[in-house]
Amino acid sequence: MKISNVYINHMIEPVGYELKDLRVEFAVEADKYSAAQKKLVIYTNSKEVYNTNWQDYDSNFFTPDLKLAPRTRYDVEIFVKTADQEASAQSFFETGKMAEKYTGKWLGNADKDIQNTLFKKTLTFNKPVKKARLYATGLGLYEAYIDGQKVGAEFLTPGCTDYTKWIQVQTYDVTDALQDNGEHELLFSLGDGWYKGIMGFDGGKEKIYGDQQRMLAEVHVDFEDGTSAIINSDESWLTTSGQITKSSIYYGEDLDATIVPANWQKAQVLDCPYDVLCDRLSIPVAIEQRLAVKEVITTPAGETVLDFGQNHAGLMEFFNREPKGTVIKLEAGEILQDGNFYRDNLRNARAAFQFTSDGKEGWVRPHFTYFGYRYLRVTGNSKPINKNDFRAAVVYSVSEQTGDLKTNNEKVNRLFQNIQWGQRSNFVDIPTDCPQRDERLGWTGDADIFSNTAALNRNVFEFFKKYSRDMAVEQKAHDGMLTMYAPAMGVDDGGAAVWGDAATIVPWNMYQAYGDPAILRQNYQAMKSWVDWISNSTKTPNLWTGGFQFGDWIALDGENPALPTGKTDEDFIASVYYFYSSKIVSKSAAILGKKEDAKKYADQAAAIKEAIQKEYITANGRLAIDTQTGYALALYFGLVPENQCQRVVHDLAVRLGKDNDHLKTGFVGTPFICQVLSKFGNHKLATKIFMNEDFPSWLYAVNMGATTVWERWNSVQEDGTMNPDGMNSLNHYSIGAIMEWGYRYLLGIADHTPGYKTLIFAPNYDYRLKKVSGYYTSSYGKFAASYQIETDAKHTIQLSLTVPFGQTVKVQLPRSEKNGVIVNGEKKAIGQFTLTAGSYEISYVPDQDYIERYTAETPVVQIMADPKLVTEISKETDVLSFFKDPNNLNNLGKMSLGTLASILPFINIAPETLAKINHLLESTPLLSERKERGKD
Fold first, then answer.
1. What number of CA atoms fall less than 13 Å from residue 630's CA on the CB side?
2. Does residue 491 contact residue 200 with C-beta atoms inside 8 Å?
3. Around Cβ 729, how many Cβ atoms within 10 Å?
4. Whether the Cβ atoms of residue 706 and residue 730 lie closer than 8 Å to each other
C-alpha cells in the first residue's frame, strides 16, 4: 500500500495561493480494497498544530478547521492503515500575505507612455540567507529577475482580472538566488498586457483598467542567525525604459536588443489602492512543451515559412545569430492558402515578434504577449534559416492531464487529440474563445458548454475557481447580470442565456467533478444573483422572454443565412436555461444547508418547467420546435415527461433523417445531441453522426488537416480555402464538448457521485469502434477501461478495468443477461455487479452479436457498393439494373428500395419480393464487416 498524489485544495504543494475552505486529498495505491483508517497531522516549524487522530476511511479527504497564518509553511502528513498494512506521505503548502498589510509601495515611472518600464533595487546581504520569499505583482504584466536570471518559470503574471477590483500577488521562493553574500540586483520588467494594451474586437479599446505601468514588491528574508529583513518597493528604487519598444496581447512585441537601459531615475510612489491586492488564484501559465520545426517552406510567393506541424498557443523562440542591427520579424498564422502564408483571419491582431539583434548569440523570445499559430513567416534574416534555431514554446495554464480516449479509428483519435490541444490553447489564465485573433476573451458561453469536458481532460478546479471569481466580480458590478465575457474589458453587454448561465453551471459542474462544495459556497451569492436577475428582467412570468439572446450560435438551420442565431426559438433556449439555473441554485442551497433557498428555487424551477411544457410541448409529447437543438435540450434537461421521452427521441431521429443524419446544431445544441441519443437508446445513430466525415461533422475538420478544433463546421471549405466569414478561428474549443459523450457513452463512465467516489461503468458498443480505451483520474486515482468487441467467432467481448482504492464501480454491461460474465476467472450470472480496488479482466459472449447488418432502410447507393449483395438481390428482381446508370444512382440512390417502390410507379417490387429482399438485407453483414472478418 502506498499514498500518492496529495492535493491541497486540488493543487500539489501550493505556495502563496488563496486557501479558503482548506481541503487535503490523497490517493491510495493498493492491489485490493480493505477496511482502513486515515489520519492527518499538520505541522508548522516542526510543531504540531492539527491532528485528526485515527478515523474510519470513508472518503479520501480531510477539511481541516485550522486558522492559517500569513507567510507560513505548513507541513502535512497523511497516514492510512488497514489490518495488515500502513502507509504515510508528506506534502506541504505555504500561505501568502493573506490579510496582512502590505509594506511595499506601488511604484511607477513619470512617463506613462513607456512600453517597457524597468524597476530595480540593489539588495545587499552580508550573512547567510536561510529563507527568502518575494511577494510581487505588476500591471499590466511583469517579469522579475535576480542577477539577470528570471524568477519563477511562469509567464503573463499576474494574470487577467478586472484590476480595478482585484489584483493577484505571486509568491516566489528566491532562497537559492540569494545565497551568495554581497550585492544582488532585483529587476522588474513590465508590459501593457490586458491592463493597458488594446483589447476587444472591432478595433478594441486601450487603457481599459489603467494608463500607467506599476509594480509592488516585498522581499522577506530570514537569515541563518535568526534575524530577518524586509526589502520593500519604495522611493529608493530606480526606474527607466527597457528594450521592448512596443507590446500588447494582440500586437505581439517589438524588442530592440541594441538598447542599453540608461537614464535611471528614482521611481515615483503612486497613490494606488492596496485593498484590491490578494493572494493568487491563477495557476501558472508556463511553457509545458516545445515543438520543433517540421518543415522549412519556401512558398510560391517566395517567402520563408516555418511549419511546426501543430496549431497551438505559445511563444516563439529562436537562437539569434544575426549581426548587430539586423531586424528579424516572425509573424504568426494558422494555415497556408495556395501554399502561401495567410493571416487574414487574425483580423486586426498584428501577432508578430520583431527583434533587433545586438549581435550576441543566444535564445530570444517575446515577454508580454502570446500567439496562436502553427506557421511562422520569417523576414529580415540575413543568414540562411536553420530549423534547429527555431522552436515553438507551448504555453497554457499548467494542469495535470486527468483523462484521454483512444479507439481503433485513427481519425477519431486525431479528433480527441485536437480537442485536448484546443483546451490547452485556450486555457491561458482565462478560458478564451481563441488564442490568435483580436479577441482572446473569457467568453462565458464557451466555458459553460465545455466545462464538463474540460474537467474530464485535465484538473481544472483551481482554474475555474479563479474564473468563477472573474464572473462574480462582473456580476457584482452589473446587479447580478453576467457579461458576455469575464473579465469584461470595459464592455457592459451581457445577460444572455447559456453565456450568462456560466455563473451557475461552471461552479456546479466543478462540484460534480471534484466533490468539493467550497466552489459552491464561495460563489453561491453570485449564482443566486444571476437567477434573480433573470426573474427581474423577463417579460413573461416563469419563462425568459425579452432582451438580447445569442440563440443557438452559428447553427446551420437558420432561416436567414445572414443571422448566426439558428432556427431554435431563442425564448425556448433562454427558458430552458432559466429552469436549469434555478434547479442548480436549489440543489446548491440544499448542499450548503440553506433550506429556505432550496425550497424557493426548487419551486421556481418547477413553475418554469410547467410553463415550458405548456408553451412548447403538447399533451401528446410533440415538441413545438422542430430543430435538432430543440429536441436535444428538451431531453437533456429533463423537460419531457418520462412517458413521452421515446416519442421525442423518435421525433429527433426523424428530424435528423430530414437533415440527412448530419448536424445542424450550433454552440447550444452540439454538446448534447449525441448524449441524448445514446442515453435514450439510439447509440447507433449517435455514433453515425459522430463519425460522419463530410460537412458538417467533427471528422470533416480532421480530414481537412485540422490539428485543433475549429470555430465553424466549415472554417476551411472543401476546396481548401478559408471560409470568407470574418469570424473564423481554427483553434476554438467549444464544439470539442463532444468528448464528454466519448467519456460517458463510448468509454462508459456513464454517471458518478460528486468527486467520483462511486461511478457507473456502462459502455455502449458500436461496430464502427470495436476497440476503445481511456481513463479518468480523480483524486482517488486512475480509473482505466478498455474493451474490444467481436474478438472471436463466438462474438466474445473482452474488457479490462482498473479501479483505484476507495472508489466503487457499478458495472452495467449491455446484452449480458443470458450467457454469464467471467471476471478474473470467476463467473457471474449477469453483467451487473460492483467492483472495488483492483485490476479486472472481464469477458462475455453477448446475448446478441455486434456485427452490423443491412436493414430495410439501407439506401440503394450502399447496396450498389456491395457486389455480393447486388447479386443476391438480382436473383429476386432486376430492379437494381436501373441504378447501374450513375445518373439514376446519384439522383435516387439515397432512398431505400421500399421507399422507392412506394413513391415511384416505375420501381415495381411485389410485396412478397420486397419482404424477401428485406430479410436478405437484415441477415447480411455489411461489406466492411465481412472484409474485417475475412468473410469477403
1. 24
2. yes
3. 27
4. yes
**Cβ atoms 257, 243 nearer than 8 A:** yes
- How many CB atoms sit inside 10 A of residue 840's CB? 15
pTM of the model: 0.97
Q: Which residues pair with 297 in a beta bridge?
A: 305
**Dihedral sign of CA atoms 896, 901, 907, 908 in order:** positive
Q: How far apart are the first and last CA of the chain?
A: 52
Pairwise CA distance, residues 443 & 471, whole Å? 10
CA 493 – CA 473 distance, rounded (Å): 15
Task: State how far the Cα of 849 lies from the Cα of 869, in Å rounded to an integer.
Answer: 21
pLDDT digits (tens, 9 = 90+) for 836-853: 999 999 999 999 999 999
Please tell me whether residue 802 adopts helix, strand or coil conformation. Answer: strand
Sheet of 797-803: strands edge to edge? 403-407, 771-778, 781-788, 797-803, 838-844, 821-823, 826-828
pLDDT for position 202: 81
Residues written for the chain: 936
Residue type, 788: Q
Distance CA 186, CA 797 (A): 64
Q: How far is CA 374 from the centre of its chain?
A: 20
Amino acid sitting at position 659? D
764 dihedral zone (left: phi>0; alpha: psi -120 to 50; beta): beta
Flag residues of the chain having pLDDT under 70: none
Q: What is the pLDDT of residue 563?
A: 83
Alpha carbon distance 637, 616 (integer Å): 14
d(Cα 698, Cα 696) in Å, to the nearest integer? 7
pLDDT tens by residue, 27-38: 999 999 999 999
Residue located via cell numbers 461552479 = 507
In angstroms, rounded to a whole number, what is the distance separating the alpha carbons of residues 234 and 424?
39
Q: Is the dihedral of CA 411, 416, 418, 421 positive or negative?
A: negative
Give CA–CA dist 165/162, Å, rounded: 6
| Gap between the Cα atoms of 662 and 632, Å rounded | 14
CB 119 within 8 A of CB 212: no
C-alpha cell at 193: 498586457
The SS3 of residue 710 is coil
Q: What is the pLDDT of residue 936?
A: 72
523 in Cβ contact with 468 (< 8 Å): yes
For residue 128, the tally of other CB atoms under 10 A from its CB is 12
**Which of 261, 311, 279 lies closest to 437 in space, CA to CA?**
311
Amino acid at 378: V
Residues 6+ apart with CB under 8 A from 858: 896, 921
- Residue 280: count of CB within 10 angstroms of its CB: 23
In this predicted structure, what is the pLDDT of residue 562? Answer: 76
What's the pLDDT at 727? 83
